[in-house]
Amino acid sequence: MSKTVLEGRVAIVTGGGGGIGRSTALNFAAHGAAVSVVDINEDAARKVADEIISSGGRSIAIACDVAKVEDAKNAVLRTQDSLGNLSILFNNAGIIRRASVVDITVEEWDQSVAVNLRGVFLMSRYSIPEIAENGGGAIVNTGSGWGLVGGSNAASYCATKSAVVNLTRAMALDHANQGIRVNCICPGDIDTGMLKSEGKQLGIESKAFLEESADRPLGRLGRPEEVADAVLYLVSDRSSFVTGTTLVIDGGGLAG
User: Fold this and answer.
1) pLDDT of 117-171, one tens digit each?
2) d(CA 141, CA 90)
3) N or C: which end of the chain has fewer CB within 10 A?
């Protein structure tokens, strides 16, 4: 894609401080967008924003708990005040708790719902009116392969990511007439800090866990930048007739 494919556009990336979020924020900036890097970890967000700025781009870092109303509202307002008219939202912030419904605590369950689902709702709630007023744009929500099929010892993650997949469809229908396209990505096992944390939660040695996670048709873990390229496609004009869909990025893991 051209380096100016997102020229003049303003994007919010939640969970932008690391992993898929970081790669996507950098990719958006490399293709011309001004990027608001939103993360609960302000230091991590600031490092990504500084990286964009040092490369000649425009960016701000915002500390935000996407599950909190005032934080979500503030992130949208600060983005527009600092960078201009919002047109892209990447709802990527998420957490995983590797436990069954019996083993997970009520607090952990509620936290999973708050970040993975309520966060998408709140950020979309405050972004959509602005995107519509600015002439339309695109939203991408991060689901998961486990939002399409079940996974063991990940009940809250499977439940919330499945909800994100169908929420995406509902949002696509509700906001198409405002010029807003809404799509979902469903990554498989991607080489991120979050994936590495899963092995620790399950008490599995890191190398063995990552080798098991790479056991798929393409024979390796995905890279964050590969997911970022898929997100770039979905927010660009190259996907101008694509909305309400789910793109699986998992090395063939769900193909069989």
Assistant:
1) 999 999 999 999 999 999 999 999 999 999 999 999 999 999 999 999 999 999 9
2) 6
3) C
Sequence-distant (≥ 6) Cβ neighbours of residue 35 within 8 angstroms: 10, 11, 12, 13, 16, 25, 28, 29, 49, 52, 57, 58, 59, 83
Q: What DSSP string runs through 45-82? A: HHHHHHHHHHTT--EEEEE--TTSHHHHHHHHHHHHHH
pLDDT in tens, 206-221: 888 888 888 889 999 9
| 149-153 own/partner pairs: CB under 8 Å, 24+ apart | 149/254, 152/100, 153/98, 153/99, 153/100, 153/103, 153/202
For residue 72, CA distances in Å to 12, 79, 162, 196 come to 11, 11, 22, 28
With vertex at residue 62, the alpha carbon angle to CA 40 and CA 235, rounded to the nearest 5 degrees, is 95
The verdict on pTM exceeding 0.85 is: yes
Ranges assigned E (strand) in the chain? 10-14, 34-39, 59-63, 86-91, 137-142, 180-187, 246-249
Pick the CATH number of 10-190+224-249 from 3.40.50.720, 3.30.460.10, 3.40.50.20, 3.40.1360.10: 3.40.50.720
Active site residues: 157
The b/e string for 68-85 (b: 16+ C-beta within 10 A; e otherwise) is beebbbbbbebbbeebeb
Asked whether 222 and 251 are in contact (CB, 8 A), the reply is yes
